[in-house]
RNA sequence: UCCUCCGUAGCUCAAUGGCAGAGCAUUCGGCUGUUAACCGAAGGGUUACUGGUUCGAAUCCAGUCGGGGGAGCCA
């Protein structure tokens, strides 16, 4: 089997490709068939003079997504997508397709989500899945090369230790069971057996969140390391992200171009990531400086809106006498302007709220989505915020020995508004302290018996974190919404296809 | 649960109280290098649903259903 991404090796030879018709253009005696085979796109040219009448007729009837086997001679050609094209000598139709729903034109999101099983064939979706694949492989390689053991935490959990509101309940032989929302506690047990481990699996959250950052089913990577403190944990998280970015830049430049990702921004992620304490973050949010920046941001949006409005009016007046091709361009640009204006209007509604939220931020408050955006606004790399108030963090998080109010947790916030991609920290290793924390959080001891055993038998300082795969893919691909970073997204209100 | 926007041809959208339209897709015709090709023609409508206001409703009002974005929530 020969694939399109191997064509450079067979220039001048006659080869056979198997795939699907991605698009078709015709002239009187020429047919241009853009072939898709999963590895890329290749244009084939069918010239009526060079082929049999039967083949010509067959080729004329092709439609988008027909499955075909095309034989032809490979030419290197700058004009063609991918740099190669096929001068067709033979064609076999494997299966006929009629009226494929997704045309090469624009579609709305509802329609595309309804056809996700077909949408996956489209170029941008194809590119995003390739990047996702690189990221997954890169993560495995990173940990494997460092001697981590990949181990799987269970998906079913038997108790709802921390409340059931966010958990999906399921029937487990007449008992209640829940789908996991983190493998961390099990990760701790496995780290005590192997030293350094990581889990890689799905997690489930029954949150009623309809936003671009939320899925009900998403994939999480959770390393857990014995004898690691918070600083070592942060070093590891940073090194992992830089490893991923390096791999993607090395292997997926063409995909990033299809996604129209600003590659320069990714290249800048190689610098060390800023680390700021929660206390500094609060000060930064509540500062005069932040208020001024937000005012400036507000003004910028206003100015941009005026400019867009003007451009739109010019386009409108041009539209009447424009030729068809130009009309098409105008329509496209108008669509872009409308989308941007909607975004601006939303920002204009939101910025005052962000401003208020930032200004009123006090020590002890948790950060919202807008606060995360503001903290990373001027950064080129992710930012790590550490040392959160213990009260807003989980029972298992170790406190700062120098300040009991501070938990040794860390979040990594991605730049460009992508929000939290990593959450983690150092775990409490002392049995009595942990039992005390359970009491403070009103949690029963019984379900945690096994977990407490870890502190009874050879307890050591240890740390770990969880990386949200989809948010990471969204950030690296520059995708607005996490639903395009996973083959079949599961979100509130959608379970089909 | 709350705020906000949307629902018109297979798809993307227009029609701002007065004849329901365009582009793409489909079918037919034309064109020898197209890049979302282009040019010409044809077919394609319960304007999400229910009720109301009006001489007249896609348009205004109320409700229902479906969808987008956001807040809350997200150890």
List the helices and strands and how they pair.
Layout: E1 14-26, E2 30-36, E3 41-47, H1 53-60, E4 67-76, E5 84-95, H2 109-114, H3 116-119, H4 123-145, E6 149-150, E7 156-157, E8 169-172, E9 175-179, H5 184-194, E10 196-204, E11 217-226, H6 230-251, H7 253-258, H8 263-267, E12 275-277, H9 278-286, H10 288-319, H11 324-359, H12 369-376, E13 383-389, E14 399-400, E15 403-414, E16 419-427, H13 431-440, H14 449-456, E17 462-468, H15 469-477
Parallel strand pairs: 3-5, 6-10, 12-13
Antiparallel strand pairs: 1-2, 1-4, 2-3, 4-5, 7-9, 8-9, 10-11, 11-17, 13-15, 14-15, 15-16, 16-17
The chain binds one RNA strand of 75 nucleotides through β1, β2, β3, α2 and α11.
What does this structure look like?
The chain is an alpha+beta fold. It has three domains: 4-95, Nucleic acid-binding proteins (OB fold (Dihydrolipoamide Acetyltransferase, E2P), Beta Barrel), CATH 2.40.50; 116-274 and 379-484, Bira Bifunctional Protein, Domain 2 (BirA Bifunctional Protein, domain 2, 2-Layer Sandwich), CATH 3.30.930.10; 289-358, Helix Hairpins. It has helices at 53-60, 109-114, 116-119, 123-145, 184-194, 230-251, 253-258, 263-267, 278-286, 288-319, 324-359, 369-376, 431-440, 449-456, 469-477; strands at residues 14-26, 30-36, 41-47, 67-76, 84-95, 149-150, 156-157, 169-172, 175-179, 196-204, 217-226, 275-277, 383-389, 399-400, 403-414, 419-427, 462-468. The protein is globular. The mean pLDDT is 88. The chain binds one RNA strand of 75 nucleotides through strand 1, strand 2, strand 3, helix 2 and helix 11.
